[in-house]
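Protein: VOC domain-containing protein
Species: Octopus bimaculoides
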Amino acid sequence: MLQHSIHHIEIGVRENGEEFVLELCKKLGLYRAGYRETVHSQQWLVRANDRVQLLVTEIRSSPPKQEQQNYARLDQQRDEEIANDPYLVLWDRDVDEGGRPVRNSVFNVCLAVKDIQRQVERLERCGAKMEKPVTVLSDADGEVKVAVVRSCLGNVVHTLVERQHYSGFFLPGFTSIRRQDVKTDEGYDEIRPPAPRNRMTHVDHVTFAVEVDTSQNIIGWYENAFGMKRFYVNSAEDDGEGFVINLPNMALRLKAFEYWKCAETGVSSNTTLHHHSNGDVGGNDDSDDGCNKLLFP
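Structure follows.
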């Protein structure tokens, strides 16, 4: 059973999800561990181990309207089916004609929780928007309960997973990739894939880049919603300004918070979330699409 609080981190890709997954595996030493496919989506699980899990999601494009009859009704049906899928969240408000998000984004930090119903009640008391209600999912390995809450921060969401009664490799509905077909002179044989080169052991922290003077409100939201607490990353850190880093071409103000182990509700263990506020030095990178940044120290 997973004992750490980050269950997985989800990356939404506009297109070419298979190629993106292969690139992740090649550059980070990960391996494909599972997949899920629906009429409207493809999802790939890549991992280094059960503590470093990335879920890559691609939303399928709907057929061009000129190729559809009653396309308005079909579009509505598609939207309803995506909304009712407990694993699918559109990570970008802007979509193309095919209904796909127009940008790639790291958008979902999935948290393992002890008591999902109690956590959801706490979130609702805080006024948080529940993107997906609590849903029970099961297969031969047991059952899990999942829900999705929208954070106060941009397009960030948090899937909540309660899986004390589940012994499967990931989540119900996902197929484990245990073997692969390899062509031989005699035909195709099933053999185990080669052991991956694990270069990562843990996700140490998640970093959000936020606008100046907004981090205190964000920290307050996470304190109220999840019982997380501020902690200081450096002895020179100022309570209001955070830990300030000044470099010739840029500046950062760092503030961090983690799950408080004594909280009665919340995630399963202590995990650090860092907020970076842009400093007064330097300009914006024109290539920045406003998506959240994930660090693997």
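Remarks: DSSP finds four helices and 16 strands in the chain.
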